[in-house]
User: Which sequence fits this backbone?
């Protein structure tokens, strides 16, 4: 069901790789709610991904940008304002990658070049995106910027590796930039802490199947899907959440506040 919540709103959506991506589902949902946007991803992902199909489906243009490149981001912001015919109302940062995870390095055996690269892509890029928008004065008042994160920023999930540190940094950037963006331009900045979700990035984490099954059993409402996340993101882009900013918002079916569930107890009583 669509409610026209984003009618007339314009934005940028980072991170749609394939139809499982959280950003992909969000783009479809934003489109259904009347929003228009530019799609972007790293040039290398464009070659692998199916982003053109999504662009066609949603009547969007694609502007490639490596989210670690200030030059690419400046170009993306100015082109988006030009393409969409005015300043922006929403931006989704849906980007994550750890080279240590990809190469199977344990948290206690990090290769720091890998760590630095993963941090740049997954965490610092959020600052870079916002600084590009801020310097270009590209956001409308009461605009909304959202990035995606995971609860490993607060609690230890051993196989989440250095992504846990990246997510802690990302959430801190949301608070710090959110202060300045709120004060000076009335723009809100939040992170959504999402349930484990079966996507390319998600399933790359070692032990993902056990991870997602455990979370499902622990969450009173069950895991939040990518589609659920798209719905929640739309609410944060809409005018119905104008005073929500600098928050890390758990979107996990109740997992983060559950000590133990009956299902898990029963499993251990067998
Ligand atoms: N899947 C999960 O279990 C889960 C849970 C909580 C949070 N998240 C977060 O959700 C976000 C989206 O991930 P997803 O699960 O949809 O997976 P995904 O693999 O579909 O999306 C990750 C995206 O990051 C992009 N990316 C990587 N390097 C980039 C760069 N240098 N510049 C621009 N883009 C780059 C990829 O091309 C890809 O589109 C990530 O921040 C992820 O950490 C995922």
Assistant:
């Amino acid at each position: 069901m669509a409610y026209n919540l984003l009618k007339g709103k314009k934005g940028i959506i980072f991170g749609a790789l394939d139809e499982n991506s959280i950003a992909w589902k969000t783009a479809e949902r934003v489109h259904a709610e009347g929003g228009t946007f530019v799609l972007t991803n790293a040039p290398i992902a464009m070659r692998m991904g199916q982003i053109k199909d999504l662009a066609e489906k949603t009547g969007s243009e694609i502007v490639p940008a490596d989210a670690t490149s200030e030059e690419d981001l400046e170009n993306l912001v100015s082109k988006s304002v030009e393409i969409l015919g005015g300043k922006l109302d929403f931006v989704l940062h849906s980007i994550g990658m750890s080279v240590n995870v990809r190469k199977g390095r344990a948290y206690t055996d990090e290769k720091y070049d890998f760590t630095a690269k993963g941090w740049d892509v997954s965490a610092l890029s959020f600052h870079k995106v916002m600084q590009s928008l801020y310097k270009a004065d590209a956001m409308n008042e009461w605009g909304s910027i959202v990035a995606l994160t995971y609860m490993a920023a607060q609690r230890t999930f051993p196989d989440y590796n250095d992504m846990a540190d990246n997510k802690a940094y990302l959430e801190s950037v949301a608070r710090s930039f959110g202060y300045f963006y709120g004060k000076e331009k009335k723009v809100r900045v939040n992170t959504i802490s999402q349930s484990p979700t079966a996507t390319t990035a998600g399933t790359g984490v070692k032990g993902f199947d056990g991870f997602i099954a455990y979370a499902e059993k622990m969450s009173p409402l069950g895991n939040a899907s990518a589609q659920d996340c798209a719905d929640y993101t739309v609410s944060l882009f809409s005018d119905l959440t104008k005073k929500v900013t600098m928050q890390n918002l758990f979107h996990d079916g109740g997992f983060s506040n559950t000590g133990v569930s009956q299902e898990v107890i029963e499993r251990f009583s067998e």
